[in-house]
Design brief:
The complex is a heterotrimer of chains A (about 350), B (about 240) and C (about 375).
Chain A (H helix, E strand, L loop, with lengths): L3 H17 L1 H21 L7 E7 L4 H11 L4 E4 L8 H6 L5 E5 L9 E7 L3 H18 L7 E8 L6 H32 L1 H7 L4 H31 L7 H25 L3 H19 L11 H6 L4 H15 L3 H30 L1
Parallel strand pairs in A: 1-2, 1-3
Antiparallel strand pairs in A: 3-4
Chain B lengths: L1 E10 L2 E11 L4 E5 L6 H9 L6 E6 L2 E2 L4 H6 L1 E4 L11 H11 L4 H15 L14 H11 L7 E5 L7 H16 L3 E6 L2 H4 L4 E6 L2 E6 L1 H7 L5 H16 L1
Parallel strand pairs in B: 3-8, 3-9, 6-7, 7-8
Antiparallel strand pairs in B: 1-2, 1-4, 4-5, 9-10
Helix pairs in contact in B: 4-5
Chain C lengths: L1 H19 L1 H21 L7 E7 L4 H9 L6 E3 L8 H6 L5 E5 L3 H6 L4 E8 L3 H24 L15 E7 L7 H31 L1 H7 L4 H31 L7 H25 L3 H17 L12 H8 L2 H15 L7 H21 L5
Parallel strand pairs in C: 1-2, 1-3
Antiparallel strand pairs in C: 3-4
Helix pairs in contact in C: 1-9, 2-7, 2-9, 7-9, 7-10, 7-11, 7-13, 9-10, 10-11, 10-13, 10-14, 13-14
Classes of the chains: A alpha/beta (about 350), B alpha/beta (about 240), C alpha/beta (about 375).
Chain lengths: ~350, ~240, ~375
C-alpha cells in the first residue's frame, strides 16, 4: 500500500520545482492562450477569393454570362490573362492563380463544354475548387426539371463556423502536449542532476515516486484546461451545451492519461534531451493528424484506424466536442472515458515496472 | 606573473570582492582560503576572465586582461569545481577536444601532459567513457585537460573536494611538480592542511583580504600551531576588529 | 585557418556525442521515420465511410431503391437503426453523421413528377465533412434521378429548353488528387523543423547545466566559433534526416521529385539556418533544459499552425496572413511543395529564397550578438 506521506513529500518537492521555475510557468499559461487566439482566428476551412484566370475565346453573351456567374460568387476572384496563350502549368508555377477556365470559341452555340484546370498540388483546396465550380455551373444551367429537393439541416453548427470545429480540439492538443512534456523530463532531470540517488536511498518505492510526480501536474493541467476553455468560449463564442461537472471529470481523466504518457517516456529515455524529443514526437504530430482533429478517422486505412485507438486525444476529442457542442452526458461518453482510464492504468503499470528495472 | 590592483566586484549593492591586491610570481603556488561566500571563487573567476571586475585592474604575464582577453586565455588553464568534462565522451576524446579548442596539435598536447598522466596513472583509462569513471579519476582527468596547452598559469577551484586523503596527497605532488617547472598555480581550498603546501596564501572574508603571506610566517605572527588554528584566530581577530 | 581547427573540434565532439547515444539516434532517425510512415498514410482529406442512417417512413419499393443507391463503394457506411429512432438522437449519440429522412408519400409524389423532398440531417461539428457529405448525397440523388429518367420510370412534365453547360475539369500536377502529394512534404518540413530546433535549443543549455560551458568560456574560443561549432553538426544531422525522409517518401509513398534535388537541398540548408539560429537564441536565454524545451515548443507549434499545412494561408484573415509572412516554416513548406510537385525552379521561388536567406542571417546574427562570453 503506497505510503501517503511519502507521496506527499515527493509531490511537494515537485511543486517547489514548478513554482520556482517561473519561466516555464509563464509559458504553460501564456502559450495555450496565444495558440488559441492565433489558431482560432486563423483557421478557416473554406476557400475564398481563389484567383482564377479566365480565357474567353467566345466573347459572346453566353460566355460573359458564365464569367459573371463566377465573378459574383465570393469563391473566385478573376485574374486577367496576361499572355496570349493560356499555359496553366506555368501560371501555377508562378502562383498567379490556382485555377484556369478556358471557354472555347463556339460556346453557347455548338459547344457546351468549358475547361477548368486546377492546381492540384494542394489536393484539399483542389477538391473544394472543383466543388465550387461545379456548383456555379450547375446553378447557371438553370433549374433542373422536377427532381428531388434536398433539404439539409445542419445540427450543432448551423453556420458551419470553423471555430466550433477547431477550438475544442485545441484544448485536447495543448493539454496532452503540456502534460506529457512536463512529466517526461521529471525523472531524467533528477537523474541528470544527481538527486535521484538520494531519493533511491530512502525507503520510497517506485510507485510512490511516480504518483508523487504526477499529482501536482494534474492540478496544473486542469487549470490550463479551464483557462483555455474560458478564453475559447469568450473569444469565439463556442457554446458549452453540456454539464460542467462532466467536463471536469473527463478532462481530469485526459490530463491523467497525458501525464502518464509523459511518465512512460521518462522511464524509457535516459537523458532529458531524448525524453523531450520523444515526448514531442509522440504528442505533436499524432495529436494533430491522427486524433481525428484535422482529418477524419473514418477516412484512414483500417490499419491506422486501429492505431488511433491508442491515442488519448482521439477519445478526448470526441468527449470535448460531445460535451461542448452536443451536450453529451456521461452515458454517451462512458466508453471513451473508460478507454482513457484503461490507458492511464496500463501506462502507469508499465512505467512503474520499467522504473523498478532501471533502479535495480 | 599575475598582478591585481584594487580589484573590486559588486553585484548590485553587495560587494563580493573588496579591494584585492595580488602579486603572484612564476612558479608560485598561491592558495585562496576562506569560508564559502568569502569571495574566493568570485576573485578567481575575475582572474580567469570569466567575470568582469567592477573596478580595478588585472595583468596576466604583462597583458592587461581588459584589453587582451583572448590573448590572456591562451595562458590560462582552469579546473572548475564541477570538473566540466563531457560524460558521454571517452577520456581521450575529451582531451582531444580541448587540445583542438586551444589549437594545440594533439601530439604536442599529449607530450605536454605525459608526465602528469603517468603520475596520475591515467594512461590506462584513456579509452573509458568519462561518465563511467570514478570521481577520483574524473578529477585527475580534469586537471590534465586544463594542461593540454601548457599554460603558464593554472587555476584550480577546490580541486580536491570529496577525494580521499591518499589521492589528495598525490594531487599536491603533481601541483608541486607543476610549480617547479615554472608554472604558477592558484588553488582555492577549504582544507586547511593543504594550505601548508602553498608558497603563500591569502585568507579572505567578506570579500576582503584578512591576511596574506607565507604559511610559516603567518603562523608565527599569530601564534598559531597549525593552519587551522591560524585561520580561526585570524578570522576571530577580524571579527573583533569590525565590531 | 585556425578557426577551422577549432570548429572542427566542436564538430567532432558533437558527432561523437550523438552517434554514440543509441537513444539519440532512434529519436533523430527512427522516430521521425515512423512518424512519416504513419502520418503519410493517415492524412487524407477525402471523406470516406460516412456513417449514414435512413429513416424510411415511406417504405415503398422506390424508397428502398433509393436507400440501395447509397450503398456504393466506400463513401458511406450505412448504419442500421431502429424504426422509432430520432434523427437528432442518432447524431447526438455519435451513431450516425448523416440521417436521411424519407417522408411518407415520397414515392407517390416522386413517381408522378411532382415536387418531392427529403430531409437531410447532418452532424455539423466537422464543417468540412458536413459540406462534403451534403455534396455526396446530392450527387447520389442526382445519379438516382438520372437513372430513373433514363429508364423512363417517371413522368416528366414538358420542360423548357435549358442552356446546357458541361464542366470538364482536370487536375494539374496531381491527376489522381493524391493527398499524400501535399501532406508528405508538409510532414517532412515539420519533422525537420522540430529536430533542428530541439537539438539546437538544448545544446547550449545542456553545457550550461553540465558546467562545460564555463570551461569553454575560459578558453580563447570566440563566440562565432562556438556558434558555428554548434550549427554545423546539427545542420549536417538534420540534412541527413531529410535525406532519409526523401528516400522514404520516394520508396513508400511513390512520391516523385519533379524539380531539382540540389535546389531542394539549397533551400533546406538556408531554412535550417533560421531554425537552428532560433534554437541557439533560445538556448542562450534560458537556464534549464526544461525551459529550452518549452520555449522551442511554443514557437514550433505557432509556426506549424500558421504554416499553411492544415489550412491554406490565403484563407486566414489578413492580419494573421501578415504574421504568417514572418513564419519561415510556411515559406519552406511552399518551397518544398513547389519543388517536389511542380518542379519549380529558383527563379520562380526567388521571393522565398530572399526571405529565407535574410531571416537566416538576421536570426543567426542576433543569436551571436546576444550570447555573451561572460557570465
Amino acid at each position: 500500500m503506497p505510503n501517503l506521506s511519502r507521496i506527499h513529500a515527493i509531490a511537494q518537492k515537485e511543486v517547489f520545482h514548478i513554482l520556482r521555475d517561473s519561466r516555464t510557468l509563464v509559458i504553460i499559461i501564456l502559450m495555450p492562450l496565444l495558440q488559441l487566439i492565433i489558431f482560432g482566428y486563423a483557421m478557416n476551412m473554406e476557400l475564398r477569393q481563389v484567383p482564377l484566370v479566365v480565357q474567353d475565346n467566345a466573347l459572346n453573351g453566353a460566355s460573359r454570362a458564365l464569367i459573371d456567374a463566377f465573378i459574383h460568387t465570393d469563391y473566385f476572384q478573376v485574374v486577367p490573362l496576361a499572355a496570349k496563350q493560356l499555359e496553366p502549368k506555368s501560371i501555377f508555377q508562378t502562383r498567379k492563380a490556382q485555377a484556369t477556365l478556358s471557354i472555347p470559341k463556339d460556346f453557347g452555340n455548338s459547344e457546351t463544354a468549358v475547361y477548368l484546370e486546377i492546381d492540384a498540388s494542394d489536393p484539399n483546396s483542389a477538391q473544394l475548387i472543383q466543388n465550387y465550380a461545379t456548383g456555379i455551373v450547375g446553378s447557371f444551367r438553370g433549374s433542373v426539371a422536377a427532381g428531388i429537393d434536398l433539404r439539409p439541416l445542419i445540427l450543432y453548427n448551423p453556420d458551419m463556423k470553423s471555430s466550433f470545429f477547431f477550438v475544442p480540439g485545441l484544448i485536447a492538443m495543448i493539454l496532452v502536449m503540456i502534460c506529457a512534456l512536463l512529466t517526461s523530463i521529471s525523472i531524467s532531470r533528477e537523474k541528470e542532476m544527481g538527486s535521484m540517488e538520494q531519493i533511491l536511498v530512502s525507503p520510497v518505492s517506485a510507485s510512490e515516486i511516480l504518483l508523487g510526480k504526477v499529482l501536482p501536474y494534474i492540478l496544473l493541467g486542469l487549470l490550463d484546461a479551464l483557462l483555455i476553455l474560458g478564453v475559447g468560449m469568450l473569444l469565439f463564442q463556442v457554446p458549452f451545451r453540456g454539464e460542467f461537472v462532466v467536463f471536469l471529470l473527463f478532462t481530469f481523466l485526459y490530463v491523467l492519461t497525458s501525464l502518464c504518457l509523459g511518465l512512460l517516456v521518462s522511464t524509457v529515455a535516459k537523458t532529458q534531451q531524448a525524453a523531450m524529443m520523444m515526448a514531442l514526437g509522440i504528442t505533436l504530430l499524432p495529436t494533430l493528424l491522427l486524433s481525428g482533429y484535422m482529418f477524419p478517422i473514418s477516412s484512414m486505412p483500417p490499419v491506422l484506424q486501429k492505431l488511433t485507438l491508442v491515442i488519448p486525444a482521439r477519445y478526448y476529442l470526441q468527449i470535448i466536442r460531445g460535451i461542448m457542442l452536443k451536450g453529451n452526458g456521461v452515458q454517451h461518453l462512458f466508453q471513451a472515458g473508460l478507454s482513457l482510464v484503461i490507458m492511464s492504468a496500463v501506462m502507469l503499470l508499465v512505467a512503474a515496472r520499467r522504473f523498478k528495472l532501471r533502479l535495480s | 606573473m599575475i598582478h591585481t590592483r584594487d580589484l573590486v566586484k559588486e553585484f548590485g549593492s553587495f560587494r563580493a570582492v573588496d579591494n584585492i591586491n595580488l602579486d603572484i610570481a612564476k612558479g608560485e603556488i598561491f592558495g585562496f582560503l576562506g569560508a564559502n561566500g568569502a569571495g574566493k571563487t568570485t576573485t578567481i573567476r575575475m582572474l580567469c576572465g570569466l567575470l568582469l571586475p567592477s573596478s580595478g585592474s588585472i595583468t596576466v604575464d604583462g597583458l592587461d586582461i581588459a584589453k587582451h582577453s583572448e590573448g590572456v586565455k591562451h595562458k590560462i588553464g582552469y579546473m572548475s569545481q564541477k570538473f566540466s568534462l563531457y560524460p558521454d565522451l571517452k577520456a581521450i576524446e575529451n582531451l582531444e577536444f580541448y587540445a583542438g579548442i586551444y589549437q594545440v596539435p594533439f601530439k604536442k598536447a599529449l607530450a605536454n601532459i605525459r608526465d602528469v598522466m603517468d603520475q596520475f596513472g591515467l594512461t590506462d583509462i584513456l579509452s573509458s567513457s568519462t561518465g563511467a569513471l570514478p570521481m577520483g579519476y574524473k578529477q585527475r582527468l580534469s586537471l590534465v585537460a586544463a594542461l593540454v596547452h601548457d599554460p603558464p598559469l593554472v587555476f584550480l577551484d577546490e580541486p580536491t573536494s570529496g577525494v580521499d586523503p591518499q589521492a589528495r596527497r598525490e594531487f599536491w605532488q603533481v601541483i608541486n611538480d607543476l610549480a617547479q617547472t615554472g608554472k604558477s598555480v592558484i588553488v582555492s581550498t577549504h582544507f586547511m592542511d593543504e594550505a601548508e603546501y602553498c608558497h603563500r596564501v591569502i585568507v579572505m572574508q567578506d570579500g576582503r583580504e584578512v591576511v596574506l603571506g607565507k604559511p610559516a610566517e603567518l603562523k608565527d605572527q599569530h601564534q598559531a600551531g597549525s593552519m587551522q588554528e591560524l585561520f580561526l584566530r585570524v578570522l576571530g581577530e577580524n571579527n573583533a576588529k569590525s565590531v | 585557418m585556425k578557426s577551422l581547427r577549432v570548429i572542427s573540434s566542436f564538430i567532432k565532439k558533437e558527432f561523437r556525442q550523438i552517434v554514440r547515444s543509441r537513444e539519440m539516434l532512434i529519436v533523430l532517425f527512427g522516430l521521425p521515420a515512423v512518424q512519416l510512415l504513419v502520418m503519410g498514410f493517415a492524412v487524407s482529406n477525402e471523406v470516406k465511410n460516412l456513417r449514414l442512417a435512413f429513416l424510411d417512413y415511406d417504405r415503398s419499393s422506390s424508397s428502398r431503391a433509393l436507400v440501395q443507391s447509397f450503398d456504393t463503394a466506400d463513401r458511406f457506411k450505412i448504419v442500421p437503426v431502429e424504426q422509432d429512432a430520432r434523427a437528432e438522437d442518432l447524431i447526438s449519440s455519435w451513431r450516425a453523421q448523416i440521417v436521411v429522412v424519407i417522408p411518407p408519400g415520397f414515392s407517390k409524389d416522386y413517381l408522378s413528377g411532382k415536387e418531392s423532398s427529403l430531409q437531410l440531417v447532418v452532424d455539423g461539428i466537422d464543417g468540412n465533412s458536413a459540406a462534403v457529405a451534403n455534396a455526396y448525397v446530392a450527387g447520389v440523388l442526382g445519379e438516382f434521378h438520372r437513372r430513373n429518367l433514363q429508364e423512363k420510370r417517371i413522368r416528366t412534365p414538358l420542360s423548357k429548353p435549358i442552356a446546357e453547360v458541361e464542366l470538364i475539369s482536370r487536375m494539374s500536377f496531381n491527376p489522381d488528387l493524391k493527398s499524400s502529394v501535399n501532406t508528405i512534404p508538409g510532414i517532412i518540413a515539420v519533422l525537420v523543423t522540430v529536430t533542428s530546433m530541439m537539438l539546437s535549443a538544448i545544446s547550449l543549455v545542456k553545457e550550461k547545466e553540465l558546467g562545460t560551458l564555463e570551461q569553454l568560456l575560459v578558453t580563447p574560443v570566440k563566440k562565432q566559433q562556438l556558434m558555428a561549432g554548434k550549427l554545423v553538426p546539427y545542420l549536417i544531422i538534420t540534412l541527413a534526416q531529410l535525406q532519409v525522409a526523401i528516400v522514404m517518401a520516394g520508396l513508400i509513398f511513390k512520391l516523385q521529385l519533379a524539380g531539382s534535388y540540389w535546389l531542394l537541398m539549397l533551400f533546406s540548408g538556408i531554412y535550417l539556418f533560421t531554425t537552428l539560429g532560433l534554437g541557439i537564441l533560445i538556448s542562450t536565454k534560458v537556464g534549464t533544459q526544461q525551459q529550452a524545451m518549452f520555449f522551442s515548443w511554443f514557437i514550433m507549434v505557432i509556426f506549424i499552425l500558421l504554416s499553411g499545412f492544415f489550412v491554406p494561408v490565403r484563407n486566414m484573415p489578413p492580419a494573421i496572413q501578415w504574421i504568417s509572412y514572418f513564419n519561415p516554416l510556411s515559406h519552406y513548406m511552399t518551397v518544398l511543395r513547389e519543388i517536389v510537385i511542380k518542379g519549380s525552379n529558383l527563379a520562380q521561388l526567388a521571393k522565398e529564397f530572399w526571405i529565407l536567406l535574410s531571416s537566416g542571417l538576421i536570426i543567426f546574427s542576433i543569436s551571436v550578438i546576444s550570447f555573451r562570453k561572460r557570465i
